[in-house]
Design brief:
- It is a single chain.
- Helices cover 42% and strands 17% of the residues.
- The chain is α/β, with parallel strands linked by helices.
- The protein folds into two domains: 127 residues, Aspartate Aminotransferase, domain 1, CATH 3.90.1150; 236 residues, Type I PLP-dependent aspartate aminotransferase-like (Major domain) (Aspartate Aminotransferase, domain 2).
- α8 links the parallel β7 and β8.
- The longest helix is centred in the last third of the chain and has 17 residues.
- The protein is globular.
- 48% of the residues are buried.
Length: 392
């Protein structure tokens, strides 16, 4: 069997196990109401939690940014590809997050894959929640540090691992809001363990930024972190700018010296062309909308409550989540795909998530809610799922 035949066999195995992913081409701007292959759907797929991705004010700011700054950066940030508008965005993000300084990356995956190896290497130890995002896992592998993965949210297990480690540098890494379960990490307790065992604490707030906390400042702000303490330097905050912020990119915020070190040592920052500066102008407008977005967040919270109250859950299980991520666990891969297909037939687009994204036997529908959904959208989804649970 040659290499191409091996690929064909591997693809056939994905089909057999109901694990092949497919793409759908949306013909409309990002919104809960989409057009795919000429058919209209209500989408419960995107991470556009505040409904900003299609907001004309952001589109206008992006267009103005392109007129002012052009289409591309031309070089890496540390050569000649860093612009005044990007400096302004980093300063705005640092102030919004309550940190001394921030550094912006083209993508969250790139940020995590670079930051982790910049902080820990051979001989060091990383302690990671088992359900962390793939970008944190890959960053851990790239670091070549010794990896310790503790059971999901198991602080006692984490404490034992930290106590047993004599590594010169310890780094705890965790999602703030877990992307497939929608639950929130015990951030204050993680910070206490980091202080007790002299560890860095890296929190990826990709799905909390813009949604949780006062003015949408994120899960860390909701937990009262970093707080005005002498230990705040050890807290590293990552946030994504492509989800609730509605544009693209990511940032890391923290102490002045930390960010300077990351700028000097993060390979995914040093060796890549800078993001188009026009995006920074759009993101400055986005942060303003997030900060003034309490009404959007209140509407989103009401929709989350409406969904949880309406689903019957006779055989399937809606995981407890107070975030826009509402996972309905089905279990079997084929059954999850069948439910997603049946919903598509009814004009409802909800993605089926299967291994390796989630553990084997826990295939699910990942229902993502947005402030741009209407109560009628939610009611239509509730009715369809409840009827299909009786029939499928």
């Amino acid at each position: 069997m040659n290499r191409l035949d091996r690929l064909r066999a591997a693809l056939a195995a994905l089909d057999r196990d109901h694990l092949r992913r497919i793409r759908h081409d949306n013909e409309q701007p990002c919104s809960p109401h989409v057009l795919v292959d000429g058919k209209a759907y209500i989408a419960f797929c995107s991470n556009d939690y505040l409904g900003l991705a299609g907001d004309p004010r952001l589109a206008g700011a992006l267009a103005e940014g392109a007129r002012r700054w052009g289409a591309g950066a031309g070089a890496s940030h540390l050569v000649s590809g860093h612009y005044a508008v990007q400096r302004d965005l980093e300063q705005r993000l640092a102030a919004f997050a309550g940190r001394e300084r921030a550094l912006v990356f083209p993508a969250g995956f790139m940020a995590n894959c670079g930051i982790v190896p910049a902080l820990a290497g051979r001989g060091d130890a990383i302690f990671a929640d088992r359900l962390n995002h793939a970008s944190l896992i890959d960053g851990m592998v790239l670091s070549r540090a010794r990896a310790h993965r503790y059971p999901h949210l198991d602080l006692a297990a984490l404490e034992r691992l930290l106590a047993a480690s004599d590594a010169p540098t310890k780094l705890i890494v965790s999602d703030a809001v877990f992307s497939m379960d929608g639950d929130v990490a015990p951030l204050r307790e993680l910070m206490a363990l980091a202080e007790r065992f002299d560890a860095w604490l890296l929190i990826d707030d990709a799905h909390g930024f813009g949604v949780l906390g006062p003015q949408g400042r994120g899960a860390l702000a909701e937990a009262g972190l970093p707080g005005d303490t002498a230990e705040s330097w050890r807290l590293i905050q990552v946030g994504t700018l492509s989800k609730a912020a509605g544009v693209a990119g990511a940032f890391v915020a923290g102490a002045e010296e930390l960010i300077e070190w990351l700028m000097q040592k993060t390979r995914t920052y040093i060796f890549t062309t800078g993001s188009p500066p026009a995006l920074a102008q759009a993101l400055l407008a986005s942060i303003d909308l997030i900060e003034a977005g309490d009404a959007r967040r209140a509407r989103l919270a009401a929709l989350i409550e409406r969904l949880a109250a309406g689903l019957a859950q006779k055989r399937w299980k809606l995981l407890p989540s107070r975030t826009p991520i509402q996972p309905l666990v089905i279990g079997d891969n084929a059954a999850a795909l069948a439910l997603a297909a049946a919903l598509m037939d009814k004009g409802l687009w909800v993605p089926a998530i299967r291994p390796p994204t989630v553990p084997a036997g826990s295939a699910r529908l990942r229902i993502s809610l947005s402030a741009a959904h209407t109560p009628g959208d939610i009611d239509r989804l509730i009715d369809a799922i409840n009827r299909l649970e009786d029939r499928l």
